[in-house]
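--- STAGE predict ---
source: upstream dedup step, 1 unique chain passed
mode: sequence only
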Amino acid sequence: MKIIDVKVRRLRVLETVGEIVPAWPGSKMTFRRGGGSFVEIATDSGLVGIGPGADPPAVAAAKQILVGENPFEVERHAEKLAHYARGRGYGGAAGFDIALWDLIGKACDQSLLSIFGGGDGQVTPYASLMKLSQPAERADVALRLKEEGWRAIKLRIHHDTIAEDIETVRRVRDAVGDDTTIMVDANQAQSASNWQPGIRWDFARALQTARELEALGVYWLEEPLPRYAFDQIARLSDAVSIPIAGGENNVGLHEFTRMLNESVYDVLQPESMVLNGITTLKKIGTLAEAFGKQCVPHHGGGDIGVIAHLHLVASWSHAPFMELLHDPPIGDYRHRFAMFENAPEVVDGVMQVPDGPGLGISIDPDLIEPD
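--- STAGE serialize ---
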């Protein structure tokens, strides 16, 4: 089997739902049903693999690397794609790497969950709320999610004061009780430098917040300090019992190896779209298991990347949850999943892994724009 073409297909917009100002620094997020793009890698056997969309320069580079090659040689391809087709942000090599894995599953007539070693076929997603909102509003949203069957939620906390942050968590805990898992994200590792917009925590604030969150039974505190403040993060992890989580914007196997060797995080959160695909993400998961750490990947971009994470997380015994961006009604995860004909759904707090070959999902053909 040889690759004969690599392209990006555009999708028609069904509806623009609205905008959310997210808690992390940056511009507004626009939510649509439909729209966007996806990668296609075609083979001479008639099989086609799909992955998240990619920018045109990355597509041209990937085409030079992949056409005429065997898709099963994914490790070798991953190295070249990461170098020549990295792209910008979420528009680079990850789309091609995930499409190659989809092809491998389809060629073997096995789901990626099976290719990755198998699992029980379902995961527990947590509703990753996006807004930095008022305590009463977050409590109302959390209660609705619990009533819908969600078992875990993640809050954003980096208000002007610690008191506001803790009040948000306390109000949510009072609303949902003790049988809902609560994580919190301080979003302090967005910038690779020592500066970023918004409230900046120091070690003292991170330590005080962590201790107060322990009393509220919070499952983890995510990104409480700058991205490369490894020494301080390790000190914080040693000083508190609440697990410290992070790593979504760290790049390369070497950074995660250092974090594990230095016991920086208790929960690693690598992101396939940042790491140029799931080939590297799989290796980080294995390393985390060897060091006795949990591995719960960052959200995966909201569409096809999430489906790849779904298969991978279901195959890991050290991944108790999967992140799913979900801040309804505007930020409902189902808006991004509208591109699929057979989208998985959260039912009674769990999501079933598609059992078809490869990723096990297909793009709604009515949404695909002509070439």
